[in-house]
Design brief:
Elements: H1 32-64, H2 67-103, H3 110-115, H4 120-134, H5 142-169, H6 179-194, H7 198-211, H8 229-239, H9 244-247
Helix pairs in contact: 1-2, 1-5, 2-4, 2-6, 2-7, 4-5
């Protein structure tokens, strides 16, 4: 591919969610359910970027990549799925029950929670194929992987978008519930607990950094992640290097700024 030919990036084919969906306005800090929805948009967008990276590089990598490239890419793609599971487990086990208890409605988040089951089978197929590649039981076939993504991702993407609407709808409780302290406590406790685990420091958190785009919508989410700079420096300089061969397929560098996808399709 010549330098004149423009490569696709991870802002598609599955569309990112605009910060404006949470009612963002210049110079105005969102509060309540809008603030919570805004934080969830950030997380959902990095998940969308991740699968877009897989979708837009799988075919060319299959054709042009080395055997090691294919194994590294399969590891990157599988870590995306593990990160999605981690996110949904946190919602089901901790966040959603806390939100429901605060509202006094045990069924408050049943809709988003039940939607997770809608794509279980598709994710299992995706993971099974990648594990077969990594274990040497199947050859890497980018067209096959891309097809599996296109089977499951419309369902996942629809869920990620709808969940934002559900969170925004919690504004009806704001006379009696302050949502952000609950959200921040759940997420903060989870991060503190997980940071003690080696897999989180080497596999999950670095992926988050490499899928977050600080330049998105003129820096709407530039202040992520909300951790002390010294912790972030350690993650970037020590733990991001552990799986550096995986993160080269991500849409952003370790500073969460856009980078070229090495095996992206031509635009």
């Amino acid at each position: 591919m010549s330098q004149e030919q423009k490569k696709l990036w991870c802002d598609g084919p599955y569309e990112l969610i605009s910060a404006s969906k949470a009612g963002d306005k210049a110079g105005e800090k969102p509060t309540g359910s809008r603030a919570m929805a805004r934080e969830m948009i950030l997380v959902h967008n990095l998940l969308i970027r991740g699968i877009n990276c897989v979708h837009r590089q799988a075919v060319r990598l299959s054709q042009e990549g080395s055997a090691q490239d294919k194994l590294d890419f399969a590891s990157f793609a599988l870590q995306w799925s593990r990160t999605l599971h981690h996110h949904h487990n946190l919602e089901e086990d901790e966040l959603f029950p806390r939100l429901a208890a605060a509202a006094g409605d045990p069924e408050l988040m049943n809709g988003p929670s039940s939607e997770h089951r809608d794509f279980d089978a598709g994710l299992e197929k995706y993971e099974a194929y990648l594990k077969a590649v990594l274990e040497g039981r199947e050859e890497f076939d980018g067209t096959k992987l891309k097809g599996i993504v296109d089977e499951v991702m419309p369902i996942v993407h629809g869920h990620l978008v709808r969940e934002i609407d559900v969170l925004l709808g919690l504004s009806r409780y704001e006379g009696s519930v302050d949502w952000m302290p609950i959200f921040e406590e759940v997420v903060g406790n989870s991060a503190s607990r997980d940071m003690k685990q080696s897999w989180y420091r080497t596999d999950l958190f670095p992926l988050v950094l490499h899928l977050h785009d600080k330049s998105f919508e003129d820096g709407a989410f530039a202040n992520f992640p909300p951790v002390p700079w010294i912790v972030l420096l350690g993650i970037r300089w020590i733990f991001c290097r552990t799986r550096a061969s995986w993160w080269r397929f991500a849409g952003c560098d370790g500073n969460s700024m856009p980078q070229e996808l090495p095996f992206a399709e031509e635009a």
